[in-house]
Amino acid sequence: MKEDPSARSGDVPVWGLAVRACHWSLAALVLAALVRDDGGPLHRWLGYAAAAVVLVRWLAGWTGALGASLHGMRPRWTATRQYAGLLLRGRAPRHPRHDPLGLWMVWLLWALVLALAVTGWMSRLDRFWGDDTLHDVHAWLADAMLAAVLLHVAGVAAMSWHWHENLPRSMLTGRKRPLDSGPGPRHGGARERDRR
Ligand code: HEM
Ligand code: HEM
Fold first, then answer.
1. Nearest 5°: CA angle at 185, between 156 and 75?
2. Structure confidence at residue 180 (pLDDT)
3. What percent of the chain shows pLDDT beyond 90?
4. Of the ligands numbered here, which is closest to the C-alpha atom of 50?
5. Domain count of the chain?
6. Is the CB–ligand 1 distance for residue 149 below 6 Å?
7. CA of residue 65 to ligand 1 center, whole Å
8. What ligand 2 atom has the least distance to the C-alpha of 50?
9. Which of 82, 104, 105, 136 has the most CB atoms at less than 10 Å from its CB?
10. Pocket of ligand 1, candidates 6, 17, 20, 23: which has the most ligand atoms within 8 Å of its Cβ, to mutate?
11. CA 78 to centroid of ligand 1, rounded, Å
12. Considering the domain boundaries, does residue 51 fall inside one?
């Protein structure tokens, strides 16, 4: 079997404990809420817990606790355009943490979780009794959430393949191989260090 470069010693820490704990608990809660979608007490508890995880992640991000800083996590148009161009040519550079496209997905996933919690809560208020609008919006957001999660996992799989790197494992261990080590991209693009 081929050696997985991300398993080698010398890997550097990229995801702190707070990021990893929030990521996997958020993923489990969202998937459970999508499966148990009857709007009952368990569903509502799962949804509120998912929203709480996002808020905890942001709090840790603002305080920088447990390696969770939000520094550098603002999506940027120019960086995104440049990165998308390189990606289309099979030359997307590795990034120590999120790449510019992945950043949009991260904020979309967080926003959808919070929007689902708010619309789920509002749909049960007395003033919306008999009005299906909020329920419909909630169901629409849930479909968008499912589509975003599938796209997120597909993106992770594609970039893992492109960079010969097990990204899901790095979200478990918190470590990646250094930027300027290991094999380059599959289609022969420049390594990060060659581009400097
Ligand atoms: C409901 C399911 C999921 C949700 C809501 C979700 C959400 C997120 C979020 C919000 C982040 C950003 C983490 C942060 O900076 O705090 C992230 C990153 C990441 N997620 Fe997920 N995720 C889900 C499922 C998965 C699954 C199933 C995998 C593995 C196959 C995965 C692998 C990753 C990886 C590798 C990253 C880091 C991406 C990078 O290297 O830029 N996620 N995810
Ligand atoms: C991550 C968060 C959440 C996800 C992914 C989610 C997902 C879903 C899905 C897929 C449905 C079925 C929609 C349909 O009828 O086609 C649903 C329904 C519902 N959800 Fe959520 N939800 C979340 C959070 C919440 C929260 C926080 C609440 C309330 C406090 C809530 C209350 C409801 C209610 C009342 C229904 C309607 C059930 C019915 O009568 O059909 N949800 N949700």
1. 50
2. 74
3. 74
4. 2
5. 1
6. yes
7. 19
8. 1
9. 105
10. 23
11. 23
12. yes
Q: Does the pLDDT at position 5 exceed 70?
A: no
Average pLDDT over residues 156-161: 95
Structure tokens at 42: 């368990």
Within 8 A by CB and 6+ apart from 123, the residues are 134, 135, 138
The pTM (predicted TM-score) of the whole model is 0.90
pLDDT at residue 41 above 90? yes
| Separation of alpha carbons 192 and 176, rounded Å | 14
Closest residue by Cα to atom 38, ligand 1, is: 98
For atom 42 of ligand 2, which residue has the closest CA? Answer: 120
- Asked if residue 28 belongs to a domain, the reply is yes
Chain segment 162-186, per-residue pLDDT in tens: 999 999 999 999 999 887 766 666 6
Closest-lying ligand to the alpha carbon of 175?
A: 1
Q: Residue 175 phi/psi, 5° resolution?
A: -125, 150
Domain annotation covers residue 59: yes
Specify the pLDDT at position 2. 44
Neighbouring C-beta atoms of residue 140, cutoff 10 Å: 11
Beta-carbon neighbour count of residue 40 at 10 Å? 9
Q: Which amino acid is at 61?
A: G
Question: For position 21, which CATH number holds?
Answer: 1.20.950.20
**Residue whose CA is at the smallest distance from ligand 2 atom 14:** 139
* Domain coverage including residue 134: 10-179
Q: Is residue 144 part of a domain?
A: yes
